Amino acid sequence: MNKSQLIEALAKAENLALKKAEEVVNTVFGDMENALIQGERVEIRGFGSFKIKNYKGYQGRNPKTGEVIHVADKKLPFFKVGKELKERVDIA
User: Fold this and answer.
1) What would the pLDDT profile of 14-50 be if each residue is shown by its tens digit?
2) What pLDDT score was predicted for residue 19?
3) Which pLDDT value is given to residue 91?
4) Would you say domain 42-92 falls under CATH 1.10.246.90?
5) Which residues pair with 80 in a beta bridge?
6) 33 SS3 class
7) Distances in Å between the alpha carbon of 40 and those of 11, 45, 75?
8) Contact at 8 Å (CB) between 42 and 33?
9) Using CA atoms, how far apart are residues 59 and 88, in angstroms rounded to an integer?
10) Where are the domains of the chain?
11) In Å, what is the CA distance from 14 to each residue of 2, 18, 21, 24, 25?
12) Which of 26, 30, 67, 92 could form a disulfide with 62 if both were Cys (CB 3.0 to 4.6 A apart)?
């Protein structure tokens, strides 16, 4: 499912106009994004949690040329699946 499909599903499930459903989805994702930018953790009970992980820089190598390059420190979002979702998906 992609973002536009999520918007359509929300509009259908809640009998909303597509524009209103799009506004709701964009607001939720925007607020989650802002929380992560501010270093906060985002938890959706039964689904999972998002947080920012810090990675230290290191010396890497360009696989094509073999040249040594420096990879800078970076921060990346990390998702950890919740126990309930993990159990629901694993039913087979």
Assistant:
1) 999 999 999 999 999 999 999 999 999 999 999 999 9
2) 97
3) 79
4) no
5) 49
6) helix
7) 29, 16, 13
8) no
9) 41
10) 1-40, 42-92
11) 18, 11, 9, 11, 13
12) 67
The Cα 84–Cα 92 span in angstroms is: 15
- pTM value is 0.79
The pLDDT tens digits of the residues spanning 51-84 come to 999 999 999 999 999 999 999 999 999 999 999 9
Amino acid at 26: N
CA angle 66, 69, 73 (to 5 degrees): 145
CA distance 88 to 24: 26
